[in-house]
Amino acid sequence: MNMNDDFDLENALQEMESKPETAAPAKRDLNPFLRKIPVTLTLEVGASDISLAELLAIEYGSVLELNKLAGEPLDIKVNGTTIGKAEVVITGESYGLRVVELDHLDLQTLAS
């Protein structure tokens, strides 16, 4: 399933702009053309640095320890850039994410 097919960026941006701003980033003044550019949104569980020898030893049933603690918020990434933290939720028969922390979105960092 492609996340871009199910995620309505236009609607999400409009909702964020309509909410009262607390420690608020500046209002997003995006060209309507830019709002339609697809991005890849991922939720990263964690990572593990391993040697090539350890990689070659992986087989069915292998368990690798990640750099996140159980229950710790996961990283939300857009095109590989971390933009916040989230927890996994179930929406119907699919997984979803609940945003628990959101960094100021800067188009310059997302483009790199």
From TrEMBL:
Entry keyword set: Cell membrane, Cell projection, Chemotaxis, Cilium, Flagellar rotation, Flagellum, Membrane
Question: Which is an annotated Pfam family here?
Answer: FliMN_C
One GO MF term on file is: cytoskeletal motor activity
Question: Which segments carry the region annotation Disordered?
Answer: 1-27
Cellular compartment(s): Cell membrane
Q: Which InterPro entries match?
A: FliN, FliN-like_C, FliN/MopA/SpaO, FliN_T3SS_HrcQb, SpoA-like_sf
Q: Where is the Flagellar motor switch protein FliN-like C-terminal domain?
A: 34-101
Any one Gene Ontology BP term: chemotaxis
Q: What is its main location?
A: membrane
This entry carries the following GO cellular component terms, namely: bacterial-type flagellum basal body; plasma membrane
Q: How is this protein positioned relative to the membrane? A: Peripheral membrane protein
Ranges annotated as biased composition (Basic and acidic residues): 16-27
Return the SUPFAM superfamilies for the record. Answer: Surface presentation of antigens (SPOA)
Q: Please report which protein family the annotation says this sequence is part of.
A: Belongs to the FliN/MopA/SpaO family.
- The name this protein carries in UniProt is Flagellar motor switch protein FliN
Q: What is the lineage of its organism?
A: Bacteria, Pseudomonadati, Pseudomonadota, Betaproteobacteria, Neisseriales
